[in-house]
Amino acid sequence: MKLIKKGAEADIYQTKWQNSKAILKIRKVKNYRNSSLDSKIRKQRTIKESQMISYARTFGIPTPLVYFVNLEKSFIIMQEIPGTPIHDLSESKIIKLSKEIGKLVGMLHKNGIMHGDLTTSNFILFKNMVYVIDFGLSQNTIKPEDHAVDLRLIKEILNSAHAKIMQYAWNNFLLGYKSVVGTSYNTKITKLVSDIENRGRYAKVI
Fold this sequence. Notes:
Blueprint: E1 2-6, E2 10-17, E3 20-27, H1 35-58, E4 66-70, E5 75-79, E6 84-85, H2 91-110, E7 113-114, E8 123-126, E9 129-132, E10 139-140, H3 144-161, H4 166-181, H5 183-205
């Protein structure tokens, strides 16, 4: 077993499951919380994440297969997607694949899922297919405001991690998103994204 990522909420390990490469995600104990409350929260989040990963697959989102869930120890064993994070691809590929990412996010939102952590590292290209990973912060929600928060995050990531191609990638993302959710919903969400940005700018000025 090999540690590949230490996070605030969970540690990620590379492991094996029935002779296949797999990912083990263990939610961390938070010592500042009451121990029984902490256990309850970690169990609930482990259940939620495994359900979301599996639910997203039912309407066509490529996600890892969930192999095993242990609620007592709050861990999930899932399929390893041995591709390349979109974050690490060439700029031209990121621009091109942004449309596909937009479609996937549109499908999530249309089916009532807010991902909660839309970064270019949480989309993986494997065998010409883009997979969505890390549903640890996902929620069941149809609120446009929540969907706008998702879009605002991916826009911020494009602006900070891929600044040179941000506008091209963002435009392509919105083309893909609109093709799934429709013009009127796309207009509504992008307006909410602008509202969130304006609130942020106003707060900074104050």
